[in-house]
Amino acid sequence: MNTRVTELLGIQYPIIQGGMAWVAEHHLAAAVSEAGGFGLLGAASAPADVIRQEIRKVKELTDKPFGVNVMLLSPYAEEVAHVVAEEGVKAVTTGAGNPEKYMEMWKNAGIKVIPVVASVALAKRMERCGADAVVAEGMESGGHIGSLTTMALVPQVVDAVDIPVIAAGGIGDGRGFAAAMMLGAEAVQMGTRFVAAEESIVHQNYKDRIIKAKDIDSQVTGMSTGHPVRSLRNQMTREYLRLEKEGAPFEELEMLTLGSLRKAVQEGDVVNGTVMAGQIAGLVKKQQSCRAIIEEIMEEADKLLGRR
Fold this sequence. Notes:
Blueprint: H1 4-9, E1 15-17, H2 26-34, E2 39-42, H3 48-61, E3 66-71, H4 77-87, E4 91-95, H5 100-108, E5 112-117, H6 120-128, E6 134-137, E7 143-144, H7 150-160, E8 165-168, H8 174-182, E9 187-190, H9 192-195, H10 204-211, E10 218-221, E11 229-232, H11 235-245, H12 250-257, H13 260-267, H14 290-307
Parallel strand pairs: 1-9, 2-3, 3-4, 4-5, 5-6, 6-8, 8-9
Antiparallel strand pairs: 7-11, 10-11
GO molecular function: nitronate monooxygenase activity
Protein name: Probable nitronate monooxygenase
Pfam family, one: NMO
C-alpha cells in the first residue's frame, strides 16, 4: 500500500511502531522495520550516549529505515537531538513539547521530522515550522494523552494541513487501520499491539496483562494535574486515584509513580507498576512476531478497503 508516508520514510507498509519509553528499544524497532513497517526507538529520559548505542544496535540488526522518538521534556533532549542528527536516522518523532528549535538541524541532516500532536492548532504550527508529517494521536492511546478522540481529531487535522497525517490511538487491527485511512490518514502508529510482540523486551507479566485485558480495563490518572496518563487498572492506579480525589499535592502523586513504568516493564510488577496501554488492549489476544502482526493487519485492511 503506497501513501505519501511510505514514500517519505521508504517503507513497505504504512505502519509505524510507537516510541514507547522503556519498551521501544533496538530489538523491537529493528523487528518492525525488518517486517516492512517503521520502527522507532523511544529516547524517553535516557542519556544521549545510551541513545547513540541503541541507534547503532538497530543498524547492526537491519538496513531498513527506522527513527527515534525524542521526548522534549527529557533533561537530555538537547544532547539527544544532536546525537540523532549525527547518527543519521531516517526520521524523528517528537512528543511532550515543541521541536521548532531542532528543526533546522534535523532537516540539514536529511532527517524527516514528524511531531506528535493532539490538536489542530499544534498541527498547523508544526506544518508552518517545516514538519514533514504529523502524528494525530487520540486519547485512546496508552501513556500520556490529550483530550480529543482519534475519530474526532484525525479528520480535523487532515482538513487543516497539507502534509501527511498519521493516525494514532485505539488502532490495533486491520479494522482500525482501515478506519484511519477512511478518515484521511496516510499511515497509522501503534503502540499497545507491539508491546505484546514476541520481539518486545517487556516482562512477560506485562504482556500477559495486556492479553488478558478487557475493554474496560484501562484507566486515566492525573486528570487533576494536567498530565493525564492512560494505563491498565491495578493497585497503583487505585491508590493514585484515591490520593488525587483527596487533593494530594502534585509532588506526592509524582512520588507514587516514580520509577513505576520501569518496575512494570523490567521487573514485571503489574500490581504496583505502571502498565501503560491503550483502550485497544482488549483486542490483543495473543503474542505474535512483528511480521505476523503487520501482515495480519494489512491483509485484513486490504480486504476491507477493497470492498469500498
